Amino acid sequence: MKLFAKQSFHTTSISQIAEAANVSKGLMYNYFKSKEALLLAIIHQASEEIFDVADHLSSRSNYQKTLRHFLDQYFLFLKANKSYISFQLGLFFQPDLKKIVEAPLQKRADHLLSLTEAMFREAGIDDPNSTARRFMTELDGIAFHFLAVFKNFPLERMQENLFNNYKRLQK
């Protein structure tokens, strides 16, 4: 993934990947039939890591504690995985790569929407589907601005604002 992020998917060769991983090119092909298969494995791994963060949404504890804990975990993940997440974000803007990763990324988004909607539903919030979509859109926008737009993005302030805005929704 580091090579893809640094050099781009198209300019990185299987030979370079094998060398960076300290394995033979043949061994690479034993595990991955192509660079595209490796890319899908990276997306799958990233989804698993994001699902670990999202598991905090399904906690049956107090809504505000669940929301706070999820946001804490999400923003820690965002800060710790900047290049990883930036690379995945860039895939959406490359039509040939988007075709490869679209299905697993859609599956990830659907799963996250479902968990987020359940959290809002359990909290008794009106229209949990729309609220979940708005919440996810705000998370995506914050991530985009942090990763790609502003050098000194006030991430902690945005996290606190997001928490304060959504904690008020509970009846």
SSE ordering? HHHHHHHHH
* Strand coverage percent: under 5%
Share of helix among residues?
Answer: over 70%
Number of strands: 0
**N-to-C CA distance:** 44 Å
Mean pLDDT equals: 88
Shape: elongated
Q: Which structural class is indicated by helix and strand composition?
A: mainly alpha
**Main β-sheet, in a few words?**
none
Rg (CA only): 18 Å
Number of helices: 9
Tell me about this structure.
- The structure is a single chain.
- With 171 residues, this protein is mainly α.
- It is 77% helix and 0% strand.
- The chain has nine helices and no strands.
- The chain has helices at residues 2-7, 14-21, 25-31, 35-54, 63-80, 82-91, 95-122, 128-149, 155-167.
- Helix 4 packs parallel to helix 7 and helix 7 packs across helix 8 (128-149).
- It is elongated and about 60 Å long.
- The chain starts with a helix and ends with a helix.
- 17% of the residues are buried.
- The mean pLDDT is 88.
Index terms:
9 helices; 0% strand; 171 residues; mainly alpha
Q: What's the layout of helices and strands?
A:
Blueprint: H1 2-7, H2 14-21, H3 25-31, H4 35-54, H5 63-80, H6 82-91, H7 95-122, H8 128-149, H9 155-167
Compact overview of the structure:
By secondary structure, this protein is mainly α. It has helices at residues 2-7, 14-21, 25-31, 35-54, 63-80, 82-91, 95-122, 128-149, 155-167.
